[in-house]
Amino acid sequence: MVETSSGWRSQLQQNNRSLMGLLTTRRALVLVLSVVGFALVFGWQATTVDSTAFLRWWSVVRPEPLMRAEFNLTDFGGVGDGKTPNTGAFERAVEAISKLGEKGGGQLNVPAGLWLTAPFNLTSNMTLFLAEGAVILGIEDENYWQLMPPLPSYGYGREHNGPRYGSLIHGQNLKNIIITGHNGTINGQGQSWWTKYKNKLLNYTRGPLVQLMWSKDIVISNITLRDSPFWTLHPYDCKNVTISNVTILAPVHGAPNTDGIDPDSCADVLIENCYISVGDDAVAIKSGWDQYGIAYGRPSTNITLRNLTVRSEVSAGISIGSEMSGGVSNVTVENLIVWKSRRGIRIKTAPGRGGYVRNITYQNVTLDNLRVGIVIKTDYNEHPVGFNPKALPTIENISFSGIHGQDVRVPVRIHGSEEIPIKDVSFRDMSVGLSYKKKHVFQCSFVEGRAIGSIFPAPCENLDIYDEQGNLVKRSVSQNSTDIDYNI
Ligand SMILES: *[C@@H]1O[C@H](CO)[C@@H](O)[C@H](O)[C@H]1NC(C)=O
Ligand SMILES: *[C@@H]1O[C@H](CO)[C@@H](O)[C@H](O)[C@H]1NC(C)=O
Ligand SMILES: *[C@@H]1O[C@H](CO)[C@@H](O)[C@H](O)[C@H]1NC(C)=O
Ligand SMILES: *[C@@H]1O[C@H](CO)[C@@H](O)[C@H](O)[C@H]1NC(C)=O
Ligand SMILES: *[C@@H]1O[C@H](CO)[C@@H](O)[C@H](O)[C@H]1NC(C)=O
Ligand SMILES: *[C@@H]1O[C@H](CO)[C@@H](O)[C@H](O)[C@H]1NC(C)=O
Ligand SMILES: *[C@@H]1O[C@H](CO)[C@@H](O)[C@H](O)[C@H]1NC(C)=O
Ligand SMILES: *[C@@H]1O[C@H](CO)[C@@H](O)[C@H](O)[C@H]1NC(C)=O
Ligand SMILES: *[C@@H]1O[C@H](CO)[C@@H](O)[C@H](O)[C@H]1NC(C)=O
Ligand SMILES: *[C@@H]1O[C@H](CO)[C@@H](O)[C@H](O)[C@H]1NC(C)=O
Ligand SMILES: *[C@@H]1O[C@H](CO)[C@@H](O)[C@H](O)[C@H]1NC(C)=O
Ligand SMILES: *[C@@H]1O[C@H](CO)[C@@H](O)[C@H](O)[C@H]1NC(C)=O
Asked: Membrane-spanning regions, if any (predicted)?
């Protein structure tokens, strides 16, 4: 990100002034000016004033809604020394804010310092504001992490049967949540979790860093999320979520399952202007797992990702799936840079998932120094007990345009199957420089679709070829030919 820290600081100073006393004064001033304005405007035209004029005019100039009352974590006994647990302070602060919900809610300011805490819940109408230099640190001892029932669309705790650890920052059935600040940090201290996981010392699935469930009207911006024990930011069955100007970091190796953002059964999501470099997928759009996801039946839809720079040496930049059993549709990914990663864009599923992936658009994507650029994989066989292998997902209407880059070993590997053919794929305006191979660089099987205009490397024979003007040049003779080489 390019914002300078002095920009952040001047924002901070402005914010500090908007305390409650000032707020009241400001509202009073707006009110007085409004009434004076009314008198001036309508005094001139007294003869034309009818009884509704005031209301019509008032609806234009009325004061904006109450701003959130501000609190400081230190007011609730917080100690930012990196050693004292602040769980009680966070809980008391959230409790105080929950009482102000009807009056516009409250903002909890977390000042610079290291604020160690066990997991805690947010409340509706709340802003969690992390000042420059503020770091919320997750307690490493898992005994402080509450266990929660499995997500209904997963049936399991994903890694283990039964319950799972909740998230460090958590919320359920909330409205109007803002997590923001001047680039303060939420740090999950994941290292101890990754080590315990690798040594099989955990009996339950690790918890995400931030998880909001069954909630709406969420804004997460201007913060850094770091070293989550598991998935980093997990909006679950939420609506209207904006994630903007967020940095998400975890080691690119040795930090298992530290996905950046996992919109899961969510609608109306915008993720923009983020830098994400983590130990698993940077973004993975999901909607539940096999029979549990099918039964829960909540799709992820209307999701826009734009202006993201991402890196994933273990998995992929932007993924859909592999858990997609409630369906994924209407996704737009634009202005994406994936660099020094294993894969760029990936759609992953398997027989047993059910659901669908459709109407997905990728445009203006830069693939820089990857093993595989674009991957669609239909045999991602990782299943809960009792899944139905006859539940076949459908994949259709996937379009790629403005795909450029360099140093990619295999720009395209689309691997459908007889059971799960991939339909209506289109490529337009693509040029991806190869790192060394000449063969097997545009691999396809059980794929139907189009290549339009200039495409490099040359598209596979499964696709119909059109010229720039959209005239058919050559119709594909077979969709099923296989040119898959996994030794890359
Ligand atoms: C926020 O902090 C992260 C981590 O220190 C840094 O990489 C990023 O550039 C910062 N963002 C801004 C806008 O200052
Ligand atoms: C919060 O309180 C601490 C300690 O009293 C103070 O240093 C800090 O400036 C306060 N922050 C805000 C945003 O009021
Ligand atoms: C949140 O604020 C809105 C509007 O200010 C209010 O209608 C609603 O009741 C509040 N919600 C809660 C849970 O306090
Ligand atoms: C957080 O909220 C969830 C859902 O309401 C609840 O089950 C859990 O006990 C709460 N956790 C804490 C620490 O209050
Ligand atoms: C896991 O379960 C075993 C056996 O019940 C127990 O000894 C161990 O302490 C548990 N570990 C954790 C991290 O809960
Ligand atoms: C979405 O959430 C934002 C932020 O809370 C809010 O301003 C906006 O009105 C919401 N949009 C809808 C359609 O509810
Ligand atoms: C995030 O920071 C940007 C740049 O300083 C600022 O324009 C924006 O208002 C901030 N967002 C919030 C919610 O504070
Ligand atoms: C993100 O930052 C940009 C520019 O710095 C700002 O215009 C935008 O409002 C910020 N987004 C949010 C949600 O704060
Ligand atoms: C899609 O989501 C955006 C928010 O990201 C919202 O503004 C828009 O209204 C939604 N579109 C539909 C068709 O619901
Ligand atoms: C794109 O996102 C980066 C942060 O990753 C930000 O610095 C830049 O201003 C954004 N560009 C636009 C055009 O919003
Ligand atoms: C996708 O978007 C289109 C147009 O906005 C809408 O008609 C369609 O219902 C959406 N599909 C889903 C599954 O939301
Ligand atoms: C596909 O999704 C886009 C938004 O991502 C929407 O505008 C369009 O109408 C959708 N088309 C169909 C056929 O659903």
From this structure: 28-46
Query: Is 10 exposed, middle or buried (CB count within 10 Å of its CB: 0-12, 13-18, 19+)?
Result: exposed
CATH superfamily, domain 281-488, is Single-stranded right-handed beta-helix, Pectin lyase-like (2.160.20.10)
Active-site residue 268, yes or no?
Answer: no
Give pLDDT, residue 16.
Answer: 39
The CATH fold of domain 50-253 = Pectate Lyase C-like (2.160.20)
Instruction: Give the residues of the chain that fall short of pLDDT 70.
Output: 1-66, 481-488
Mutating to test ligand 5, I would choose from 203, 204, 205, 206 the residue with most ligand atoms within 8 A of its C-beta, which is 203
Query: What local confidence, expressed as pLDDT, does residue 12 receive?
Result: 34
Instruction: Tell me what pLDDT residue 436 has.
Output: 79
So what's the pLDDT on residue 37?
44
Q: Give start-end residues of each CATH 2.160.20.10 domain in the chain.
A: 50-253, 281-488
**pLDDT for position 425:** 98
The tokens describing 263, both together, are: 């919109």
**Cα of 346 to ligand 4 centre, how many Å?**
35
Contact 207, 229 (CB under 8 A): yes
